[in-house]
Backbone:
């Protein structure tokens, strides 16, 4: 029986797209939902064009009531009975309550070589620090922001003249390779780390 995968996005959804496109044939998982906290997220149209069920749970009406937003999000998720959640450019910080409900079944991609550069503006910080290499990480989500077990990493060189934008574009290409690879292994029950 295929693992059902719900993907959470906030923006363009290029990682979501690669994940959806990868779940075919003998892949042990299939996409069951793409949900965004932003109705204007470009990834929603991409998911709809592929026939994937979509939903929006706008976080703004909830204000600072994170638990309220997450209760609404949980209702939408549970309706599709996912086995795995993939955060793919999902820009809301999740509470410990939400994370504990899904811990062990929730992945995230982060655009740095964790544990370095948790949080935001990872490429600008790496350039500022004079790093010679950068990359991305797929990890299990725990209550510690960007801190869960690392399941995979991909590395890229930092080139002279790089800006945060040029470095982000180089890393994003590797995100699109890494996330589908890690999801396939995870859905097959593998938990070992892969480096590409
Ligand atoms: C990616 O760089 C990802 O690492 C970060 O947000 C970006 C999402 O891009 N979390 P997309 O929406 O998947 O195109």
Residues:
């Amino acid at each position: 029986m295929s693992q059902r995968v719900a993907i959470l996005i906030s923006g363009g959804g290029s990682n979501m797209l690669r994940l959806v496109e990868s779940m075919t044939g003998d892949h042990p998982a299939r996409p069951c939902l793409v949900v965004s906290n932003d109705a204007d997220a470009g990834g929603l149209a991409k998911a709809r064009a592929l026939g994937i069920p979509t939903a929006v749970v706008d976080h703004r009406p909830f204000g600072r009531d994170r638990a309220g937003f997450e209760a609404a999000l949980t209702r939408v998720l549970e309706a599709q009975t996912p086995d795995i959640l993939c955060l793919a450019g999902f820009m809301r910080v999740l509470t410990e309550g939400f994370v504990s409900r899904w811990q062990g079944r929730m992945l995230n991609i982060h655009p740095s070589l964790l544990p370095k550069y948790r949080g935001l503006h990872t490429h600008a910080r790496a350039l500022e620090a004079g790093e010679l290499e950068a990359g991305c990480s797929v990890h299990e989500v725990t209550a510690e922001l960007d801190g869960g077990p690392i399941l995979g990493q991909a590395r890229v060189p930092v080139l002279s003249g790089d800006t945060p934008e040029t470095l982000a574009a180089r890393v994003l290409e590797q995100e699109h390779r890494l996330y589908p690879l890690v999801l396939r292994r995870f859905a097959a029950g593998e938990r070992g780390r892969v480096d590409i």
The CA atoms of residues 87 and 108 lie 5 Å apart. Helices lie at 14-22, 42-49, 66-78, 96-102, 122-128, 164-187. The mean pLDDT is 97. The two ends are 29 Å apart (CA to CA).
